[in-house]
Amino acid sequence: MSKEDQVIMGFRDLYNKLVWLNKDKMEDSLKGYTSSEVHCIEYIEKNADSNVTQLAESFYMTRGALSKLTKKLIEKGLIESYQKSDNKKEIYFRLTEQGKAINKIHDDLHKEFQERDKAVFEQVTEEQFDRVLSFVEKYNRHLDAEIKKQGLELKSE
């Protein structure tokens, strides 16, 4: 097996194991909410003045699909839409108190998972982190270029 195959399979295995390990606890703690809903809430909390276009680009979804998702979140009372006085055309989103509570549960779970995995990360040197991050950034740029080539310009950075 080539090194490239080993890297791709390694990333896939890591991702699948993380999902498997975290799944039950996430589902139990966030019953009634889909992964997409929770991650949309997280994005809105971390990015002031989020709109449908930004969310669609971030999640590699169409604006139509994201509009359906935000409509569901509004109906569930987790987010609310608003407009700025200087821009009546654009619609933005922010969390409600209920949305903030869901985001807190999600954040706390991530902290718990980070604590579980801390032993591994404590052994990694700054240089090793820098190398891994450099590779991930290069690969991300490559994939962004491939997406753009296919006319799927969803992510702008």
Write the layout of secondary structure elements.
Blueprint: H1 3-29, H2 35-46, H3 52-59, H4 63-75, E1 79-84, E2 87-95, H5 97-121, H6 126-149
Antiparallel strand pairs: 1-2
Distinctive features:
157 residues, Arc Repressor Mutant, subunit A, two-stranded antiparallel ribbon
Overview of this protein structure:
The protein is globular. A two-stranded antiparallel ribbon has the order 1-2. It has a single domain, classed as Arc Repressor Mutant, subunit A. It contains 6 helices and 2 strands, in the order H-H-H-H-E-E-H-H. By secondary structure, the chain is mostly helical. The relative contact order is 0.10. It has helices spanning 3-29, 35-46, 52-59, 63-75, 97-121, 126-149; strands at 79-84, 87-95.
What is the CATH class name?
A: Mainly Alpha
Determine the CATH topology.
Answer: Arc Repressor Mutant, subunit A
| Radius of gyration from CA coordinates | 18 Å
| Order of helix and strand elements from N to C terminus | HHHHEEHH
Report the strand count.
2
Low-confidence segments, given as residue ranges, are: none
Look at the structure and name the CATH superfamily.
Winged helix-like DNA-binding domain superfamily/Winged helix DNA-binding domain
Q: What class do helices, strands and sheet pairing give? A: mainly alpha
Shape: globular
Mean pLDDT: 92
Assembly type of the chains comes to: single chain
CATH architecture: Orthogonal Bundle
Number of domain modules? 1
The major pleated sheet works out as: 2 strands, antiparallel
Q: If strands are numbered along the chain, what order do they take across the biggest sheet?
A: 1-2
Bin the strand percentage. 5-15%
The percent of residues in helical segments reads 55-70%
* Intertermini distance: 34 Å
Query: What count of helical segments does DSSP give?
Result: 6
